[in-house]
Amino acid sequence: MKQQGVAVLGSTGSIGTATLRVIARHQARFRITALTASSNATLLREQAASVRPEYVGIANPNGDSDPAWGTGTDCLIAAAMRADVDIVVNAVVGTAGLPATLAALHAGKRVALANKESLVMGGDAVLRACAEGGGEIVPVDSEHSAILQCIGTRPLGEVRRIILTASGGPFREWDASRIASATIEDALNHPTWRMGRKISIDSATLVNKALEVIEAHYLFGLPYDRVDVVVHPQSIVHSFVEFIDGSVLAQVGFPDMELPILYALTHPHRIDDIAARAFDPSSASPLTFEPVDPERFPSFALGVAAGVRDGSAPAVFNAANEAAVKLFLSGRIGFGDIARAIASALAAIDGLPSVSVADLSAADLAARNHVIGWSRP
Ligand code: NDP
Ligand code: MG
After folding, report:
1. Exposed / middle / buried, residue 295 (Cβ in 10 Å: 0-12, 13-18, 19+)
2. For residue 84, how far is its CA from the centre of ligand 2 (angstroms)?
C-alpha cells in the first residue's frame, strides 16, 4: 500500500493537533510531509521533531523561528503544492486559509477542509479551482462529514433537504440581556466541544452555524431553502439528510473531531480505528431537538441572509465577524456588539463586485476596516 503524503496547515491548533494524533495511529497509510503554523514556534518545533516532515513553515514568526523553515504567508501555499503531498488538511482559522485551499485544488490535491471561512469567503472561486485543477474537497466539519456520509453515492436529485444540527452553544438557555453582557470566559465555555478560541466564540453567537449553512450550500450544491438547522444540545446526531421518499438518515456518535478528520483522509473508504470509542445509546440519551431562536442569536439570521443574498455579502459577513470576534477577545467590544458590528458592515458594504478573488479580498478588507471604525466612534 502506497503511503499518502499529508500537509497539515495549522498543525498547532485544535484540529491540527487532533490530525497529528489521528495520523500517528495510521502511519502505514499516511505520512506527514509538511507542517505549518502561524507563530507558535515552540509547539511547531516539537511536532517537527516527532513527525520529521520534509517541509516546515511558519507564517508569522516572531523571532523564534528556525533557519530551515519557510516563513511568511506564502509558506502555506508552498506546503500545499509540494509534489510529496497528496492530501492537504487545511486547519487554519480564518480567511488566511483561502489561498492554500485554492492552490491545492488547482494542483489536483484532496483538501480535507476544516477551514470553513475560506469556503464562505470564496465559495465560487473554490469550486472553480476544484473543477479546473481536478482537486477534491472533503469536509472535516462534523456536520458536513455527517451529510457526506449519509448521502453516500446517491445523486443530489434524491435529496430533499439537509438538516444541520447545532449544539446551541453556552448561551442556549440564557435570555437576551444576559447574552449581550456575557464575558469572554462565558463565551469560551462551550458545553460539548473543546475548540480554538475563534470558533468557540462563533459557536456562542451561532455565527458558526450560519457559516456552516453557507459551507453546506457550496459543498453539496443545494439552494438555501433546502438547508435547515435544528438545535440539538447533546451533539450526538451530527446532521440529518432527508430524501425525496421521506426517508431520513442521520450520522450519530459521541462528539469527537478525530472521526471526521480520519474520514476526510479515507473517504469514501473506512478504516479500522482502535481509538474509536464504542457507541452506547443508553449513555447518549435523551436526545432533544429545538428550533434556533433568531431573536436571541441575531448573528445567525444575518449570516443566513448574507448567504441568500450572495455576491460579496458572505465575504462581508465573514470578515466583519472575524474582526468583531478579535475586538471582543481583546476586550474592546462587548458580546452583544458582535452582531451589531456585523449588521453595520452588511448595511454599509453592499453590491461590491464578487467575481475574482481580488474582488472578494477587497470586500473582506472593507468589512474589517468598517468594523474597526465602527468600534471607535
Ligand atoms: P485554532 O485556533 O485552535 O488553530 C488555528 C491554527 O491555524 C493554528 O495552527 C494557528 O497557528 C494557525 N493560524 C492562525 N492564523 C493563521 C494565519 N494567519 N496564517 C497561518 N496560520 C494561521 O483553530 P481550530 O483548530 O479550532 O479551527 C481551525 C479551523 O477549523 C477553523 O476554520 C474552524 O472553524 C474549523 N473547525 C474547527 C473545529 C474544532 O473542533 N476546533 C470543528 C470544525 C471546524 P498558531 O498556533 O501558531 O497561532
Ligand atoms: Mg461544525
Report:
1. exposed
2. 29
Is there an atom of ligand 1 within 6 Å of 91 CB?
Answer: yes
Cβ atoms of residues 222 and 203 within 8 Å = no
Q: Where are the domains of the chain?
A: 4-139, 310-377
Q: In the prediction, which pLDDT does 193 show?
A: 79
Please say whether the structural domain 310-377 has been given the CATH code 1.25.40.390.
Answer: no
**How open is the CA angle 43-102-166, to the nearest 5 degrees?**
70
Q: Is 189 helix (H, G, I), strand (E, B) or coil?
A: coil
pLDDT of residue 291: 98
Beta carbons within 10 angstroms of residue 152's beta carbon: 9
Confidence of residue 309 (pLDDT cuts 50, 70, 90): very high
The strand pair at 30-37 and 55-58 is best described as parallel
State whether the beta carbon of 211 lies less than 6 angstroms from ligand 1. no
Asked if the model's pLDDT at residue 79 lies above 90, the reply is yes
pLDDT tens, position by position, 10-41: 999 999 999 999 999 999 999 999 999 999 99
Residue 71: what residue type? T
> Ligand 1 atom closest to Cα of 10?
9
Residue 196 DSSP one-character state? -
Q: Which residues pair with 89 in a beta bridge?
A: 8, 112
CB contact set of 17 (below 8 Å; sequence gap of 6+): 11
Atom 48 of ligand 1, nearest CA residue: 38
C-alpha cell of residue 317:
459577513
User: What confidence category does residue 190 fall into, taking pLDDT thresholds of 50, 70 and 90?
Assistant: confident
Say if residues 278 and 85 touch (Cβ distance below 8 Å).
Answer: no
Ligand 1 centroid vs 145 CA: distance in angstroms?
A: 18
* pTM for the structure as a whole: 0.97
CATH number of 4-139: 3.40.50.720
In sequence order, what DSSP letters do the residues of 153-172 get, joined into one string? T--GGGEEEEEEEE---TTT
- Three-class DSSP category at 276: coil
Q: Residue 39 in 3-state DSSP? A: coil
d(CA 344, CA 18): 36
Q: What is the amino acid identity at position 312?
A: S
